[in-house]
Amino acid sequence: MRSINFFLICTLFFCIGVQAQTLDLIGTVELRTVPRPGVEERPDIDGLAITGIVGGSDVWAYTGPDGREYALMGEATGIAIVAIPSLEIVARVASASEDAPFYWRDIKTYGSFAYVTTEARGENEGLQIIDLRGLPLHAEQIGVVRGTDDRLVSSHNLSIDTSTGHAYVMNSDGTEIVCLNLSDPLAPSEVAAVTVEDSHDIFARNDVLYVAEGRAGTFSVWDMSDKSNPSLLNRIAVPDAGYVHNIWPTDDGSHVMTTEENADKTVKVWDVSDVQNPELVGEWLGESRLAHNVHIQGQYAFISHYSSGVHVVDIQDLSNPVEVAQYDTYPESDEASFFGNWGTIPPTVGGYVFASNLEGTLTVLKWTPPQVDI
Fold this sequence. Notes:
The chain is mostly beta strands and 374 residues long. The chain has a domain of 177 residues. Helices cover 4% and strands 45% of the residues. The chain contains 1 helix and 32 strands. The strands form 9 sheets. Strands 1-32-31-30 form a 4-stranded antiparallel sheet, with no helix packed on it. Strands 6-7-8-9 form a 4-stranded antiparallel sheet, with no helix packed on it. Strands 10-11-12-13 form a 4-stranded antiparallel sheet, with no helix packed on it. β28 and β29 form a beta hairpin. The two termini are 20 Å apart. The N terminus is likely disordered.
């Protein structure tokens, strides 16, 4: 009888006690958009439809010293800061908005400051520094870094190594990754630069820099512990590569995931525990067949997947990624097309997931991970 009871307990534990993961809608906020410049001349890219309304770009999270949470999202005229969970727009900061058919604003935070890049030109062009210390009442720009020879004036992407206090910022044509010391967060100083053939997205943590090398069809890993002498650890060719779009490591750095911004190109899982002998160990692709970016937190990957929205993938078994939750931020279509979800972040301290759509919609979701009840 004891063995039967034990079997029943195990069955209850695995079949009842583990609850499904959920992404529950808290609400949406519509931010500033404009008709896409050049929509008539360029209605598609390689046969894939493109949205005619733009302004929404990337999104990031900020938690203030008082524990209040905010979403920072790019819009047509700059950055909108939204209080969570009230969904109130508490501040707007203008950014460069000329010559930018998609605006391409990327946002990261360090301490109580936000750092923003954009490929756009015009007012406040360059690496923008926003002071968040006045929230929830206000936020304001306190500086713009143009970089040596204006090489940061039009920049697609940045990453901040919060463990060392350094920002890594792409130069205007993606051929350099410029390292800035943030010990004075109001006046970053250039301390290094890494030369690459091409780049699109970057990630830095614990003095290791990961570069998704776009048209080159490769990604690279760099040792940045000696800023005066960056060391290339390896450059890995993606088989039958599309446009190698972004890269993100697992928490322990033993694996990375990459995306290629082309239809039917999978999100790939790489074992880089021996970076000299990397191995492609897993692949996954969502319903719309067009992944944008992947971010990792713990055993889950949070993927912005254009028209099919937010996908959460369990990577506990790195060779077999499994979707466990999904929220469609663009229900009008699930086709492989450039509509919908541009950016998705992993859960905040409060368990919120932010998703940004190209069409200017900020979607705030509450993530409920699996929990065991006995």
